[in-house]
Each structure stands twice: as C-alpha cells, then as structure tokens.
Amino acid sequence: MSQISEIKENLTVTNIGRGMIRREDPRLLTGQGKFIDDLPFSDFYEAAILRSPHAHARVVSIDTERALKLSGVIAIYTAADLEPIMKDLPPKVSHPKLNYQIRLPMVKEYANYVGEPIAVVVAENRYIAEDALDLIEIEYETLPAVASTHAALRKGGPKVHIGSESNVAVHIIQKAGDPEAALKTAPHVIRETFKITRGGGHSIEGRGVAARFDPITQQLTVWDNTQAPHYVRQMLATIYGMTEDEIRLIAPQDIGGGFGPKAQFYGEEVVIPWIVMQMKHPVKWVEDRWENFISATMERSQTHRVEVGFDEDGHLLVLKDVFEHDQGAYCVGLQVPTITMSTLPGPYVIPNIHSELISCYTNIVPTSSLRGAGRPQAVTVMERMMDRIAEHLGMEPAEIRRRNLIQPDQFPYAVGLLFRDGSPLTYDSGNYPALLEGAVDRIDIVKFRRDQAEARSQGRFLGLGLSMYVEGTGIGPYEGARVRLTNSGKILVTLAASPQGQGYETVYAQVAADAIGVDIDLVEVRHGDTSSIPYGQGTFASRVTATAGPAVWEASELLKSDLLAVAASLLKCDVSSLALSGNSVFIESEPERRVLLYDIALVSNVGRHGMSVPRDLPIAIERTAYFKPVQAVYSSGISAVIVEVDPETGKIEILKSLLGHDCGNVLNPMIVEGQILGGHAHGIGNAIYEEARYSEDGQPQAVSYLDYALPTAIEVPTPELFHVFSPSPLNPLGVKGAGEGGTIPVPGAVANAVEDALRPFGSRICELPLTPERVLRAIYDHD
Amino acid sequence: MAVDESRADPVEDKSWISVTINGSKQDYLVEQRLSLADFIRNQVGLKGTHLGCEHGSCGACTVIIDDRAVRSCLMFAVQSDGSSIETVEGLAIDGVLSPLQESFQANHALQCGFCTSGFLMSLVARLREGPIDTESEAREALSGNICRCTGYSGMVAAILEQSNSIQGIKENS
Ligand code: FES
Ligand code: FES
Questions:
Q1: What is the largest CA-CA distance in chain B?
Q2: Best residue in A18, A28, A52, A653 to probe B by mutation, most B CBs within 10 Å?
Q3: Which of A97, A116, A115, A120 is nearest to A107 (CA)?
C-alpha cells in the first residue's frame, strides 16, 4: 500500500499495513478464550440483582427475611446496608449548565427506571440467588412516569425526579456565523422534523464483575469486562477511599464485544467489589440478557427540528437544528448529544450554523455512547436535508453534495463549533470529493436512474441513497503503552487499553515490531491489567489506534535506541554503524559482529549482582510512553445504498450497499475492514430493524431477541468497500479511528434510498427505524 | 411480588446421567433443573460454549447432540442422558485447527469471538447434511445465530472457501 511510505521516512515497514491474521483467533476458535464467565472462579459466590419493575416508584419497604432463610443464600444487600458507598456516580462529560441529578449505585428511595438495581442477593450459585429474588418483598408507591422527551417537556407534566423543577437536563446552543440573519435572507429555506428511536449495544456477552480481596496484601482484585479498566479503578478508588495501587482492575483477556455500553460506569461495578470486602469472600455477577436489556445504557433517541437555507445553485447558507435528546433517568454523560451537535455540519461548507440541544430526563434506562455515539442521528438529519434540497431544486443528490463539500486544500478546516473533547471543531485532514466521486463512479448513477425509471414502469420501486459524514476520533486525554525487553530476549508490549474484539494483540505487535525492527514473533502484547501499567483511559470513541498506536510507536523507538546503545557498548562501535533485525543487533558492514537481544537483556536487565556497569550503558530496558493528542483527528466516509421497497408489505430489500472510508493510514487492513463491516451491520440494524420500544408508562416492550430484532446474516448484505487515505498530520502514524465509521452513515443512506424509492407516492421518511409499519404509513398515511 | 410457598427451597433432586462428550463417556450426578449449557460449562468445565441470551435466540450456546445442532440453553442436562454431545472443544485435533476453523481465521470471520463457538457448531452440523455452495445457502446456514461484531461477511466467505476446497478435493480425487 502506497500510504505506508508516508509513515516514517527511512523505515523499513514490514508489518504495518499488512492484513496479518490475528493471534487471538486460535484460542477463540477452539473454545479456549478467557471471557469473564469462563475464568475459574469456582470458589466464588454468585450474585443476582433485584431490579425495579416500575419506571418510577418510591420504595416504601423491603423485607428480605424470607429470602435470607432460603438454603444457599449467603447475604442480601440493599442501599441501607451500603451507606458508605452510596455516593454519586458522576457523568463522564458534564456541562456547567447541567441540571444535575445524583445517580447512586443502588436505589435508596426512588426508583427512576425499570431495571434500576434495588437489592443484591449473594448465594452459592446463580440459580439459588435468582430463587431468592422472588422471595424479597418490596412495597412500592408507584409514581407517574415520563417515557419520552415529548412527555418530559409537556407543561405541568410529571417530573422524572421528585422535587426537581424541570425535566430538562441541559439546554445548550452553539452558533457559527449569524444564522438568524442568514435564515431571513436565504432564497430558499426548507424545514423538517426527524425522529430516531432507541436501540442498544447488544454485545453478545453481557456485563460482568467479579472480585476477590486478599487480606494479606490488602489488595482488592476486580475482574470487570469493561472497556476502560483504569477509569473503573479510579472511580472505585474514589468511592471506596482507597489508593489506586490498592485496587487491581483486570479486564479479562477476551471481552465479548463492547460498543460503548461497557465503557460506562454502573452501580453494579461499585457494589460487587465492596460486598466482597464486607463478606471477605469472592463474588461474581454476570448479567443475563434480560438485565442487559433493562439496565445497560442505550442510545439514539432524539427528535430534530431542522431548517436549512440555500441559494438557487444549492449552496448551503445556513443550518439551524434544534433537537431533543433523551438522556434517560440520569446523566451518565453528555458526550452523545454534544457529539450530535458538532457532527451535523459534516463535510459541508456551511457559513452559518445554529445547533441547539435540549436534553431531557426520562424514566428510562440512561443513554450513553453506543457505536456511532450521537453521529448516526446527526448524519441522518443532515443527509436527509441534503436530499430534500436536491429534490427542491430538481438536482441529483450527488450534485448537491458536490457543490458543498469542503475541498482537500481547505484543511485544517475550522467549522466554527466546539467538539466534545472541548477543542475547536477543526478537521485535520480528508478528501471528501474523493469519497463522493469514488461512490458515484462505482454506483453509476446515470444507469441507476434508467433502471429506476424502468422498474417504476413495472410497478417496482427502487431508490438510491447517499450519506456522508465526518467523525471526530482519537480523542484525549492520553493513552499509554509500556514496551519492555524481557529477560529472555523478547519484546513485551503492555497496553493500558483493553480490546473487545479489535485484535490489539496482533495490531500492536505489528507497530512495535516495525518501530524496533525486530521479528514480529518476538513481540507479545498484553493488555487490560492496571497492575502492569499505571495509567490509561480505555477503548471508546474510536480512539485507541490514534492514541495507543503512537504511544506504542514512541515507546518502541525509545526502546530501540536503548538496544542500540547497549549493542554499541558491547561491540565497541558507534551506534550509527548498527542495524537491528530478527533477534539481534549487528554492525551493518560486518553482519557477523552481532549481539542477541537475549545478550542485551543479560547485560542490562539481569546484570551481575553487585557489579558496576559502564556509565553510558542503558539499564533496565523498559520504556513507557503516553501519547497526548492535541485534538481529535477526523475520519470520514460515505455510504451509498440501493434499495427496493415492496409497497404491499413495507419490506425493504437492500440490493447494493457501498461504503467509502478514510481513516488515514491503515495499520492492519483486514482488521479495519472488519470494523467497517461490523459497523455497517449495526447501521443496517438501526436503519431498519432495531427498536427498544417503551410504553407510555415507561415499561420496556423489547426485552428479548424475540421482540428486538438484531440483524442476522440474512438481513445484512456484504457491502462493497473502498478506501481513501488521508493520513492525519497530528500523530506520528498518520492514523485515525475506524471503529464506528461503518455505522454512522448507513441509517441516513437507507432513509434517503427509501424516500427516493417511494417518491411516486410522495412519501416522507422522517422516523427510524424503517420497520414495515413505518414504511406502509409513509406510503399510505400522509396528505 | 407474589410468593409461591412451594418454592421456599430449591429443588434438591439430582439424577445420574450418562453422556458422551467429545468422544469420552462419563456419568454425572446433575441437579434436575440444571440447564445443559450450565452443565457443560460449569460441571464438565468446557467453557467454550457461551451464553448470549439464555432464551434460544442468539445461538451462542449451540452444541451438537447426536448429530443435530441444539441450543444448550433451552435444554436441561437430564434430557441429554444417553446422548452424544459435541462441543467446540472437540473440533481441533491435537491443537490443529479444523479446515472450517482455519477458514474462519483466514477470512476474519470473528472479532470478539464470543459468538464463534455457536456459529462453528451450527455450521459443522449443517455441513454434515451436505455442502453449502451459494452465498444464499451460506447466509441461511448462519441465520440461526447472531453476531454483533462482524457483519457476517467473513463468515460467508469462510463457508464458501470451505465448500470450494471440499469441492476441489472431490474433483481432484
Ligand atoms: S444462549 Fe442459547 S440461544 Fe442464546
Ligand atoms: S465476533 Fe463478537 S459477537 Fe460475533
């Protein structure tokens, strides 16, 4: 691949850029993975959690007496037993104007959503623990619930939190230019309202926490299949009043998918290790699917009222979007809606922008980041409007986009808003016209329009949808990596972040091997254990490639200079005459004069007890680097889909799906494509199938895969992929994030394609997902 | 919450069952209400069979019983008495991946790998019934299981690669 040469001059790249098969696979394929529930916790008690059956209720009394008598039940804890840890779980991202409502690990008095934890039963096994749940008697006083942002904003309606004045969590406005004036003077202004409903993360492995306290070392070890081990450790240390070194947080080697919900911090993570310390006995809790449906954070529900102004030629003049965001019962973080605000303008030059967020509390499980994190909504809204402009002016949707794209020579491009990391929304690099033209060429729009016309004449309805996006990835504050020469002469890379299927053990071995120049088989990668590297942030927001990647690179370069210095001292030559390859360092002009990495380890790491070493000889060959990005780096992409809609049944068939993607330099194209393909499936789910419905009183209506349709191999076509490479100038590898790009544009593209297909009916597609019912309503139920 | 008095104590009853697991036959004393999945995972100690939903929808827990793919979360262990059970641990022989496992790796058909055992077992059972020659047959064969990570493309490619190489072997012999 051509982009590799740009990574580093004078570097022989042998591994980076290759689609190496994954080191993780053999154990996963043979059932030897180490997922949290597969670890040998045989002496651990098991916990089950009683959860609120009401969306809003006051807990009047809890009687655990009968449950405690059940043989095999060890203990039951409620908030009353856990006073020392009934402390606030603060939001990840906040705002000075946030109407803050305290979130406790367990319900103290008011249950504010169905699924909120009320009591924990610890028993000999999960079967008995679940039996005991049925024997706990709780008296509730039910209260009116708020189950949508619409209901939350109703004047005089019930309040999500008793005693609060308003259900609005935060109201934020960001502006660029003078949107009010521009709306008054724009030759054309069109408006629409779009609604996107809730969906879940649905990692096939649920959440899980297990812990053991060692009374001798006074150390608490917590196994938690979190995306952010250091973050969880810090939260626990703060709540328990312990130091970070007293808690060892281990994210198991294998985690069965993350997608965002596992990057959040939950009451269960506070309660389980604490009761382990109280009971002086290890305990594990692994959620079942029903718990995952009602208690893991979700996303997506937003209602947008958008206006765009443009001129006769279709140039965008102004964008105004006011949207309601469903925050759920508590603010776990404001990252999602603030990302929505800054994702709206996308790849387009828009001189005047008004982006306004009204985030509302509801009596539903809290929302937080989920693959795409606020972007699929923003992109759907913007890209629907681009199509509407095209329709208004009688233009091809591709042409309207072409006329408004930021050009490759305009980078860095300042949008005029702020991104969620607090930095100005300034795109570092990209080539949006290449993405658009790449898609247009591959689709052959002229031919498609002929096919579409012909199909229509036969009573068949085909549609084409395009959707483009820009995605801030690789955010701060930092990520770390430690690279060590082991005493046996191998290279051990320790990452702070833990993976959930992204292949870190393979990718970061590629990076370290190339940076050092050693044989990749000598490099081993470990991750997810706070005792092996003191600081880190975690895997979320498509940030690891662009933060841990450079950290591994930098630590490896430092290590390499140590290796060379030791070899120079041993070989009595100058460093500049040395080269490193395979398992040794040698004099380039006399390759037979070499030292093995093993010999270097013997001299510098093992040493000779009590003996001095030369002054300039590096010792203890281990280097740690933390990479601190100055701002987000911006990936981008395009989705194009061709659908056929059956007006009898409302069924949508995807005839073709195409994704163009630009995440800068690619470390392992196989893994990057895997991320895009998986994200694409998630996008199809959001577009057509997945919907977490709630009744008006806040009862979840989808709590199993019988009522929540996760796409299977039948529903997800294999998309055609193409890549554009715009390396980021902001990190030494030129990389950007790739974890979410497959998801982000797909719902908007499908919505555009369906409206295009149904144009003869005058249908308006304003709500996702496009279930058959919604499609049929769009066809037959409008004026 | 209404309380059923008769449930004040867990069911203590246990039964002996005799099952062959990955070729080795053994007797086990199992609680009657123990699910087959929990039996395989916790009593036999084969943790490769995973639980994704425990309500028969995701397929992660799929094992092969007497040549049929079965969701082990939907069965009690006692119901498997006298049967022969195959789990993912039985696919590789002496650490050598089976051709299907190899194709999975070569085609990046797994990411987190949590769903993978179930897919493999469903496919092994299906491939014993006959070859999978087309993409739509491959998708049909995969459609009983759910994967959230991969989007299935790698699995479709793996299956077709498998069938082609089997086809190739047949034609060459
Ligand atoms: S765990 Fe058995 S089908 Fe999901
Ligand atoms: S590989 Fe993660 S669910 Fe399939």
A1: 68
A2: A28
A3: A116
Q: How near does any CA of chain B get to the CA of A281, in Å?
A: 20
* Cα(B142)–Cα(B139) distance, integer angstroms: 5
Measured distance CA(B136)–CA(A738) in Å, rounded: 29
Pairing of strands A45-51, A117-123: antiparallel
* Per-residue pLDDT tens digits for B46-83: 999 999 999 999 999 999 999 999 999 999 999 999 99
**Min distance A204 CA to chain B CA atoms (Å):** 5
- Residue A208 and residue A126: Cα distance in Å, rounded? 13
The confidence score (pLDDT) of residue A5 equals: 40
Name every chain A residue with its beta carbon within 8 A of the beta carbon of B108. Answer: 21-22, 670-671, 673-674
Residue with token string 């081990």: A229
The answer to whether the CB atoms of B152 and A681 lie below 8 A apart is yes
Q: Within this chain, do residues A621 and A497 fall inside the same structural domain, yes or no?
A: yes
CATH of domain B5-90: 3.10.20.30
Q: What is the 3-state secondary structure (H, E, C) of A263-297?
A: HCCCHHHHHHHHHHHHHCCCEEEECCHHHHHHHCC
Query: What is the rounded CA–CA span in Å between residue A603 and residue A612?
Result: 11
Nearest CA-CA partner of A746 in A724, A764, A770, A714: A770
Taking only residues 67 to 86 of chain B, the set having a beta carbon closer than 8 angstroms to any beta carbon of chain A reads: none
Q: What is the pTM of this model?
A: 0.94
Residues A562 and A650 in one domain: no
Ligand 2 atom closest to B149 (CA): 2
DSSP H helices in A136-177: 149-152
Ligand 2, closest atom to CA A205? 3
A244 plus A121 within the same structural domain:
yes
Do residue A30 and residue B88 have CB atoms under 8 angstroms apart? yes
The answer to whether residue A153 sits within a structural domain is no
d(CA A330, CA A366) in angstroms, rounded, equals 6
Q: Which residues of chain A have pLDDT under 70?
A: 1-13, 782-783
pLDDT of residue A783: 59
Contact assignment for A31 to B88 by CB distance below 8 Å: yes
Over range B117-146, report the average pLDDT. Answer: 96
Question: Residues A163, A107: contact at Cβ < 8 Å?
Answer: no
Chain A neighbours among B 117-136 (CB < 8 Å)?
117, 120
Structural domain tally of chain A? Answer: 3
Contact A679 B151 (CB under 8 A): yes
| Residue A76, number of CB atoms within 10 A of its CB | 25
Query: Looking at chain B, which residue has its C-alpha nearest residue A720?
Result: B153
Helix (H) / strand (E) element for A778: namely helix A772-780
> Ligand 1: does its nearest atom lie under 6 Å from the Cβ of B48?
no
Q: How far is CA A742 from the centre of its chain?
A: 12
Domain B99-162 listed as CATH 1.10.150.120: yes
Chain-centroid distance, C-alpha A670: 20
